[in-house]
Each structure stands twice: as C-alpha cells, then as structure tokens.
Amino acid sequence: MRLPFRGAAVVGRGDDVARTGAGRYLIYSVTKAYLAVLVLRVGLPLDEPFEGPWTLRQLLRNTAGVPNYSRLQEYEASVTARPGEAWSDEEFLERALALPRPFAPGEGWEYSNTGFLLVRRAVEQAAGLERALREHVAEPLGLHETRWVLEVSDLNGLEPGEARGLGGDVQGVYDPKWVGHRVLVSTPDEVFRFWSALLAGELVSLDVLLDAVPADDADGFGRPAYGLGVMVDREWPGGGTLVGHGGGGPGYCAGVFGRLDGTLAVVLSNEDGADAQGEALRLLAAAPT
After folding, report:
1. Which of 219, 218, 277 has the alpha carbon at shortest distance from 247?
2. What is the DSSP letter of 287?
3. Is residue 2 part of a domain?
4. Dist CA 34 CA 27 (whole Å)
5. CA-CA distances (angstroms) from residue 81 to 15, 86, 118, 166, 271?
6. How far from the centroid of its chain's Cα atoms is residue 133's Cα?
7. In total, how many domains does the chain have?
C-alpha cells in the first residue's frame, strides 16, 4: 500500500490490517467524533439548552444554526498574521455569533466549528477535557499517544507539518487553540483502535451516535448525513453503511472511514493540500468485506 502523498495509513479489520508509515499527527476535525463520545460517556443531557437556544444534540449534529467562525474573513487573516496568538473562546463566540444565523435551532443543517467549540466547553465544564479523555477513551483503549494539544509547545515531536500560509513547519509557530473545539494528536494505529471500538459499539450506543440528519453533498458520498460528531452514509457507493470523518488544518489532514462490519481506513498526512479524506474513502472501497 502506497499513499499518493506524504503520510501514514492503516487499512483493514481487527488484526488483519495493512500499514504504511507511522508517526504522530494532528487529526483536526476527526476530533469531533471523540468529543461526541465524551459527551455521551460523561452523561451530559443531549436535549437541554446549553449556552444558548440550542441543545448538545443539535450542536453535535450541526443543526443548531450556530454561525461557523470559519466563515469569518478575519479568522484566516489572523491565523496567518499571528499564528501563535489564538483568540479566546469569548472572542471566537463574539465574532461568530455576530454573523447572521443561517436558521433557527433544529430547522436546517450547516457545518459549524463554533458549535463544536460549545460542545468542548460542555465537556470541559462537566468533567475536564483532559480527565474525560483519559478516563473514558485513553485508559480503556490503551491509547498512550492520543492527547489534546493546547499550547504551541505541544506540537513538538510530531511529524513535520509544513503549511504554506505560515511559511513552513507549524511546530513552534502555530497555536492549536486556533481550533475552537481543540484538536487531538494521535498515531495511525491509535486512531484505528479508537474507531474500531467505536464501530463495534464498545464506547457508546451506535443507535444514538448514528441518529443522523441529511447533510450537504460531499465528494464520494451517496446520501450524506451527519450523526453525533460523525459523517454517515447509508447509501455509500462503496457498499454498506459508511461512518467516519475528515479533517484538515495547517500542516496536517486526516480521513477516517469505516463500514459497520469493522473494516476501517485511516489516513493521516503532513503534506499541505493532501486529500486524506478522499484517499481513505478509496482505500476503504477497495478493502475486502
């Protein structure tokens, strides 16, 4: 197995897997699935309002109508101009919530990083972000390299991730708090282990997690939908029900997709502009059932 770009991958099911590459990578929005698991395992109420007229279920499914801070022109400009000085939560929320709301809570779908910033705050307030990850994910699954990156120095030791917009390697330069919902660092094997447990129903109820609503069209999907922090496609052209997520940001990108039989494709890259999500879908479609 070879990737068309720099990175690492694990494809297969159980112990019958193919691997290429190794190392530690930022997984960006793939983190959203981990946040959903923490919400469910901590036992937070899904259908009570949280910091606004929306519920955690709506925030997790992108149906809350919370404007996405990624739409802000000043967001990208600020990351480029001051990569080591991220906005505070208050500044993220003040700027994003000043944008027009796309719809009332529960009356539409729009991807929102701001919504997952609020999800992260709920976990943080209820259980502590690091403690929740340790107790509910890392220790039960034996994940020793999966952790939150919260400071510039936390990027030390990752695979070098060059971002053209930042002039080179993000290590020592980029403040990971520019990701409002925060971001995890992990390895291909540990991402594979987490998602294998997730698809096996070992972490949370799949009925709850995959209770999905229609989402925007996406390349490689048949009928895209979004559950609690996960992308879902019950009419995936590759066969079977597809579950997973993609993510990308300065220096790194990730794609993790699996079928309900437990077959998974994990692709992590540290090449600027790589299509990790598309490659993960291709590898999964080619994997035996």
Report:
1. 277
2. S
3. no
4. 11
5. 45, 11, 25, 8, 21
6. 14
7. 1
203 assigned to some structural domain: yes
Beta-bridge partners for 149: 183
The structure tokens listed for 159 are 């695979």
Residues sharing a CB contact under 8 Å with residue 16, sequence separation 6 or more, in sequence order? none
- Output the CA torsion 152→244→189→197 (10° steps): 120
Is the Cβ–Cβ distance between 203 and 213 less than 8 Å?
no
- The amino acid at 220: G
Domain containing 273 equals 7-286
Which residue's structure tokens are 């943080």?
A: 124
Per-residue pLDDT tens digits for 199-233: 999 999 999 999 999 999 999 999 999 999 999 99
The per-residue pLDDT for range 55-100, each reduced to its tens digit, is 999 999 999 999 999 999 999 999 999 999 999 999 999 999 999 9
Check which CATH number belongs to the domain holding 57 and give it: 3.40.710.10
CA distance 185 to 159: 11
Q: How far apart are CA 19 and CA 17, in angstroms?
A: 7
Confirm whether 190 is domain-assigned: yes
The single residue listed with the structure tokens 């290429």 is 20
